[in-house]
Automatic annotation (TrEMBL):
Protein name: Pyridoxamine 5'-phosphate oxidase
InterPro entries noted in UniProt: Pyridox_Oxase, Pyridox_Oxase_CS, Pyridox_Oxase_N, Pyridoxamine_oxidase_dimer_C, Split_barrel_FMN-bd
Cofactor(s) annotated in UniProt: FMN
GO MF annotation, one: pyridoxamine phosphate oxidase activity
PROSITE patterns: PYRIDOX_OXIDASE
Family designation: Belongs to the pyridoxamine 5'-phosphate oxidase family.
Domain Pyridoxine 5'-phosphate oxidase dimerisation C-terminal, chain residue ranges per copy: 171-212
EC number(s) reported in the record: 1.4.3.5
Short name of one Pfam family: PNP_phzG_C
Organism this protein belongs to: Coraliomargarita algicola
Keywords, in A-Z order: Flavoprotein, FMN, Oxidoreductase
Keyword Ribosomal protein applies: no
Domain of life the protein comes from: Bacteria
Length: 212
């Protein structure tokens, strides 16, 4: 399959030093709000990269569920592959691709579990079916058929028929505590605008331009 002619010209915007906000958190929020206004499904979808203790990487798309200067929070099963990798190697990268704006944001940082109270607060906000799904799925484990999941889901529906679903012990949130942010704006001739924020020796965020 030859894909060599499959390409787009990036002409929708530019990003210069004068556009940079002092804080990468403010810059991320600004771009995120602009992505929300575009014809874009789930602007909070991010490609999460993790690696095991031997450095073998894996990626998957998860949903960002909270963002503040504390970091970026997402939720998962604590017995999943991503969770096992994060426990062995608590570093991760997250990439947001907002094609209607021809933009990307990449965040790299250490990862920590959030508190059980925070996880519970979010879990209780989820739809009933999603709550049941957290109980029904042995995430990342090999199963012989989909019917196993459906049977388990039916079992959970009966168990929690009154509609009060407790937080599973093996389910909760992680927070990426950023060590760097990279903001990428597509430009013509593949001479894209790239800026990376990192902390200096005094702990202040400093942005520098990167070659594309």
């Amino acid at each position: 399959m030859d894909l060599s002619d499959l390409r787009q010209s990036y002409t929708k915007g530019s990003f210069s030093e004068r556009d940079l906000l002092d804080s990468p958190f403010e810059q991320f929020e600004k771009w995120f709000r602009e992505a929300e206004k575009c014809d874009l499904e789930e602007p909070n979808a991010m490609c999460l990269a993790t690696a095991d203790a031997n450095g073998l990487p894996s990626t998957r798309v998860v949903l960002l569920k909270d963002f503040s200067e504390k970091g970026l929070t997402f939720y998962t099963n604590y017995q999943s592959r991503k969770a096992a990798q994060l426990e062995a190697n608590p570093q991760a990268a997250a990439n947001f691709l907002w094609l209607p704006l021809q933009r990307q944001v990449n965040v790299i940082g250490r990862v920590e579990r959030i508190s059980k109270a925070e996880s519970l607060k979010y879990f209780l906000s989820r739809p009933f079916g999603s709550q049941l799904g957290a109980w029904a799925s042995p995430q990342s484990q090999v199963i012989t058929s989909r019917s196993i999941l459906e049977q388990k889901l039916d079992q959970m529906k009966r168990k929690f028929a009154e509609g009060k679903v407790p937080l599973p012990d093996n389910w909760g949130g992680y927070r990426i505590v950023p060590e760097s942010f990279e903001f990428w704006q597509g430009r013509v001739s593949r001479l894209h605008d790239r800026f990376i924020y990192k902390r200096d020796e005094a702990g202040q965020w400093v942005a520098k331009r990167l070659a594309p």
